[in-house]
Each structure stands twice: as structure tokens, then as C-alpha cells.
């Protein structure tokens, strides 16, 4: 393992996590739970197979990733975060929140997956004490669902049977609205369409902003 050679906790953390792709591998293991190598690779568009293998080996050596056997009849190893690996969730959340300032533009060729949208939504939305609601998200051909109730927010990939509100548009418009970076007017100008009860948005608080 390469090292900065500094007796500093930030430097020691970057010794383990500072290489390209490493934290995105951790992100995928949070999203997917125990999963196969091929599942990890599908969630990391652009990574070379040998690079993924090398990064996983480094994470295993550092005690952040472990392996377990898949149940029969699948004869393969599953990668899973250890307790130390799961302890990185606040780090990923902080990076995601800080990174919002760079999300104003969608770059040509950027990959986008519904699991990233769902995971972000579960971080960014805080539900006040209000009746349960379901919001369907469609962005970049991907679908995710936000379910608010009991003072909690849950998000998942897929479709809702009878959503109270549907947000459909470019990822920049959908994510920007949910995270408070833009308002409904600006999101609509970017191509967002809404179906259902737009008053549902008033029940959702975005970080750094008031309800719509």
C-alpha cells in the first residue's frame, strides 16, 4: 500500500481510500449489500476489470471489505462491507452533500443509475410529521421511489403502484429540485414534468433550504 508517510489521521485515511474508484466501490457496496464481482462492475461504468480486482484486494487487506459464500446453487463469493467499511457511510454522505455544488451541469457521456438517485434521496430529504406520501422519480430513463412516513424517508429503485406525485425529467432537474439546488420553476425550465399533487413537495425539506 502506498502511503503519504505522515502521522495524521487524514493522511492515514487517504492511504487507504485516496486512490481513484476506491470510494465509489464502497458506495456500490452500501447500495447493493453483499454482491458478486459482476454486480459491482455493472455499478461502476468505466472501471477496468483488473483495476476493480486490485482495489477490492486493497480494501480487503485494509479490513474494509470481506467475502462470504453465496447461498446454493450459486457457487461464487460475495463481497460485503465489514463494520469498519460501513463506518464510512457518514463520509460518503458528507462528500455527497459537499459535491452538490458541482452538480449544476450534466456533462456529456456521464453515466447515471437509479440506485444513485435513490440513495441520494434517502440522504437529502427529511420528512416532517405529516401523512405518508409516495413520490415516483423518473430521470435519465431510470426509476426510483421515495416513501415518506412516520417521520422517516425511505428510497428504493423501481416503480410505485399509486404515487402521490411523479417527477419526470433530466437528472439535473429531478435531483436539483429534491436537494434544494433549484426551485420548481427552474426545474420545469430544464424539462421537469410533474403529475399528481405538487403540494407533496411542501412536506419535504431539502438540506440548506425551506420547503417549497
What is the tally of beta strands?
Answer: 7
- The helix content is 25-40%
Compute the CA-based radius of gyration. Answer: 19 Å
| Through-space gap between termini | 48 Å
Unreliable stretches covering 5 or more consecutive residues: none
- Proportion of residues in extended strands: 15-25%
Query: Regarding CATH, which class of the largest domain?
Result: Mainly Alpha
What is the assembly state of the chains in this entry?
single chain
Structural class: alpha+beta
Output the helix-strand order: HHHHEEHHHEEEEHHE
Q: What is the overall silhouette?
A: globular
Mean pLDDT: 88
Main β sheet profile: 5 strands, mixed
CATH superfamily of the largest domain: Winged helix-like DNA-binding domain superfamily/Winged helix DNA-binding domain
Q: What would the CATH topology of the largest domain be?
A: Arc Repressor Mutant, subunit A
In words, what does this structure look like?
This protein is an alpha+beta fold and 212 residues long. It folds into 2 domains: 94 residues, Arc Repressor Mutant, subunit A (Orthogonal Bundle), CATH 1.10.10.10; 90 residues, SCP2 sterol-binding domain (Nonspecific Lipid-transfer Protein, Chain A), CATH 3.30.1050. The protein is 37% helix and 19% strand. The protein is built from 9 helices and 7 strands. The chain has a 5-stranded mixed sheet with strand order 5-4-3-6-7, with helices on one face. The protein has a two-stranded antiparallel sheet with strand order 1-2. Strand 1 and strand 2 form a beta hairpin. The longest helix has 13 residues.
Amino acid at each position: 500500500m502506498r502511503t503519504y508517510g505522515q502521522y495524521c489521521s487524514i493522511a492515514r485515511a487517504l492511504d487507504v481510500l485516496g486512490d481513484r474508484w476506491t470510494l465509489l466501490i464502497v458506495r456500490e457496496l452500501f447500495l447493493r449489500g453483499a454482491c458478486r464481482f459482476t454486480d459491482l462492475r455493472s455499478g461502476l461504468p468505466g472501471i477496468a476489470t483488473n483495476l476493480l480486482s486490485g482495489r477490492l484486494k486493497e480494501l480487503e487487506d485494509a479490513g474494509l471489505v470481506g467475502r462470504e459464500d453465496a447461498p446454493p446453487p450459486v457457487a461464487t463469493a460475495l463481497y460485503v462491507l465489514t463494520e469498519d467499511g460501513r463506518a464510512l457511510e457518514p463520509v460518503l454522505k458528507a462528500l455527497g452533500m459537499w459535491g452538490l455544488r458541482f452538480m449544476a451541469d450534466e456533462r456529456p457521456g456521464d453515466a447515471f443509475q437509479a440506485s444513485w438517485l435513490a440513495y441520494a434521496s434517502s440522504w437529502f430529504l427529511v420528512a416532517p410529521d405529516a401523512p405518508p406520501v409516495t413520490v415516483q422519480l423518473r430521470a435519465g430513463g431510470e426509476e426510483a421511489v421515495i416513501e415518506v412516513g412516520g417521520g422517516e424517508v425511505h428510497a428504493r429503485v423501481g416503480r410505485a403502484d399509486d404515487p402521490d406525485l411523479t417527477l419526470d425529467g433530466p437528472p439535473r432537474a429531478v435531483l436539483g429540485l429534491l436537494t434544494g439546488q433549484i426551485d420548481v420553476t427552474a426545474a420545469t425550465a430544464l424539462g421537469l414534468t410533474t403529475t399528481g399533487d405538487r403540494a407533496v413537495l411542501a412536506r419535504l425539506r431539502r438540506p440548506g433550504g425551506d420547503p417549497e
